[in-house]
Structures are given as C-alpha cells and as structure tokens.
C-alpha cells in the first residue's frame, strides 16, 4: 500500500470517529468510502430493530435508486450482505446471474460493478457498506481488501456513535424525569420516591413511556389527562 494512501486512510478513520451523532457519522462513512475506493458512488444501509433496513446515507441519487430497487425487488447484494454476513462482488450487472431482477434494473440505471460489505461488531450487524461503479470489472482483490479494512473502521465508528447517542438520550430522559419529580414534590409536598411512583403509575396507566410522561409534565406543568 502506498505510504501516502495509508496516511490518508488513517486520517479518514480518525475523522469517522469524530462524528457527533449517528447521522453525521454515517454520512462521513459514505463519503470517505467513495474516496478510499475511488468509485463512482457509495451508500450505507442501516438495520433498525433487527429487521427494518434503511438507506441511511448516499453520495449520489443513483445510490438512492439502487437501494430502493433492492427494497422493491426484495433481493440484492446489499441486503444479502446484511442477512448472510458475507461480502459480495458483482463484476458486471449485465451478466450476473444472482439477484437477476435487481441486476437487470440497476444495469439500466448505468450501474455495472457493485461491492457490498457487512458493517458489524461482535455484538450485532449494523448494516452494509455499498460501493458502485459505472464500469464493469471495477473492483478487484485489492479493492476488496481495502474496503474490508475500511468497513471495520466504519463499523467501530458507527457503534461508538450509536452508544453515545443512546447514552445522551438516557441522560436527557433522566434529567426530564428529575425535573418532573421536582414539580410534583413542590406542588404536592411529596418526597422523591412518591413523585417517581406517580410518574411510573401514569406511565403504566396511559401506556406511555416514562420519559414521555415526564416531558409532558415539564412542558405543561400537568400530568397527562
């Protein structure tokens, strides 16, 4: 690997880990993937709830169309990379026999080469990194090796961003609940445990998340009707 490329690659990895949230991180991953592999466009699909797949970031409207076609056809290398935990290469969509319907349609869009890799940690699969080129035979063994290393860095960066986002939400929820408790304690001369018991009871009775009950209390100064 060329030393200058290695340095650029390391810098990309550092930038991916500096994303403030999942949205920013996934956009950075897609853009840097396109640059690292020098392909025409790239995209990232994310899995939510273990089954719902979202086209989370794309560098070109062509990727949006290709992703949407996979959803509509229910087939494609990106989806299969997620579910089968494999790396898939299409050297030419015009002659590829796997995912025949999807290949037929994306070749009509001008996509000829595809490289799809799973984004994952030891705990779970987060999605797939998808690279597209308009020329056939674009991705060789060296490209696959580079993309695999890149996908590993991207997976760690996305996992970190998700963890930070979850932690931030948990802290915000705890803060809201504390504020709601304070309002109830002052208004009804309750202690902290009694105020929390009221919030929890409303959460159960109204089938609302505790955070939503607390947010309603803080914003309206009233418990949900």
TrEMBL record:
Among the GO molecular function terms of this UniProt record, one is: RNA binding
**PROSITE patterns, per the entry:** ANTAR (PS50921)
Cross-referenced InterPro entries:
ANTAR (IPR005561), CheY-like_superfamily (IPR011006), GAF (IPR003018), GAF-like_dom_sf (IPR029016), GAF_ANTAR (IPR012074), WH-like_DNA-bd_sf (IPR036388)
Statement: the UniProt record of this protein carries the keyword Transferase: yes
* Source species, domain of life: Bacteria
Q: Which UniProt keywords apply?
A: Kinase, Transcription, Transcription regulation, Transferase
Q: Where is the ANTAR domain?
A: 157-218
Protein name, please? GAF domain-containing protein
Q: Which organism is it from?
A: Oryzihumus leptocrescens
């Amino acid at each position: 690997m060329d030393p200058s490329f290695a340095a650029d690659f390391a810098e990309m990895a550092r930038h991916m880990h500096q994303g403030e949230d999942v949205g920013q991180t996934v956009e950075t991953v897609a853009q840097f993937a396109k640059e690292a592999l020098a392909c025409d466009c790239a995209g990232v699909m994310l899995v939510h709830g273990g089954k719902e797949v979202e086209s989370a970031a794309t560098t070109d409207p062509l990727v949006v169309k290709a992703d949407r076609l996979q959803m509509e056809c229910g087939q494609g290398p990106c989806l299969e990379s997620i579910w089968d935990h494999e790396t898939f290469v299409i050297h030419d969509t015009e002659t590829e026999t796997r995912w025949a319907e999807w290949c037929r349609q994306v070749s009509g869009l001008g996509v000829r080469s595809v490289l799809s890799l799973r984004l994952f940690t030891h705990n779970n699969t987060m999605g797939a990194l998808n690279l597209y080129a308009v020329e056939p035979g674009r991705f060789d063994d060296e490209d696959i090796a580079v993309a695999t290393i890149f996908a590993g860095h991207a997976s760690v960066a996305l996992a970190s961003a998700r963890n930070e986002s979850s932690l931030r939400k948990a802290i915000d929820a705890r803060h809201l609940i504390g504020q709601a408790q304070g309002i109830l304690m002052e208004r009804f001369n309750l202690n902290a445990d009694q105020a929390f018991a009221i919030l929890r009871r409303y959460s159960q009775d109204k089938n609302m998340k505790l955070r939503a009950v607390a947010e309603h209390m803080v914003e309206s100064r009233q418990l949900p009707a």
